[in-house]
Structures are given as structure tokens and as C-alpha cells.
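step 3/5: co-fold with heme C
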Amino acid sequence: MPPITLPPIVTRNGPWLLALGLLASPFSAMAGDPEAGQEKARTCGACHGANGIAPIDRYPSLAGQNEGYLVLSMLAYKNGNRRGGQATVMHGQMSNFNTQDIKDMAAYYAAMPRTGAE
Ligand code: HEC
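step 4/5: write C-alpha cells
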């Protein structure tokens, strides 16, 4: 078997490239899985729309929203840090989900087109 030769850019800068990769993807350790998220988000559609576009004016649409923002907002509801407005509604919604569930659901909604999933 021939030895595996890495291009010089990788061998020379390997540690730096690795460090950059870690910095660039804070969620890489446990990335969200949109397919698992779809399963977990079954009950969300009543308020946020099956296609991620909220059917009711007082509820926010989630389709195509930034994934990191969705994670942080859901964690804030869960932890009780996001309050006021209708936040108590979401606090209750998040109580049964762990951080991985939240990442999965964020990946699911972030992957939807902003005009709404088909
Ligand atoms: C009973 C209706 C209802 C259900 C069910 C519901 N939500 Fe919400 N959601 C809301 C409302 C209302 C808000 C706005 C809360 C506020 O005023 O901060 C919200 C806000 C959010 C936000 C923040 C949006 C933003 O732009 O900041 C996210 C993310 C979210 N919901 C995700 C979910 C997920 C995921 C589920 C399913 C597990 C879910 N919601 C279920 C009503 C609901």
C-alpha cells in the first residue's frame, strides 16, 4: 500500500487548520440533525406553521431563521431567561426538550426556505 501523502498546505498548517475549524463551528461537537428535529418539532406547527410560517399574526415564523439564533432563543425560554411578551408560552413548550433536541429543531427550521417549506 503506498504511503498516504498529505498536501504540504495540510502538513504545514495542520494544527492551525484544525484550530480554525473548531473556532468556526461552535456547534460541531453535537451538531443539530434536521431529520431528528422534524420528528421532535411535531407539536410546534400548530403555532409556528407546518411549513415554518406562522398562521397567526401574533406568533413568529421560524422558516429559514439563523440556526444559532434559534438555539439561543430556545435555550433562553427553557432557562427562563427570555421573559415578557408571550415568553411563558414558549417556556412551557421547551420544558421537555434537552439541548440536543433544541439543536435538532433549530437545524430543522433553519433549513426551511424563508418563504416556507413546501
Ligand atoms: C402554543 C403556541 C406555541 C407552540 C406550540 C410553540 N410555540 Fe414557539 N413561540 C410561540 C410564541 C407565542 C412565541 C413568541 C414568544 C415571545 O413573545 O417571546 C414563540 C417563539 C418561539 C421562538 C423564538 C422566535 C424568535 O423569532 O425569537 C422559537 C425558536 C420557537 N418559538 C420555537 C418553537 C418550537 C421548536 C416549538 C415546538 C417544540 C414551539 N416553538 C412551539 C408559540 C408557540
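step 5/5: annotate
Residues 41, 43-44, 46-48, 59-60, 62, 70, 73-74, 85-87, 89-90, 93, 105 surround heme C (CB under 6 Å).
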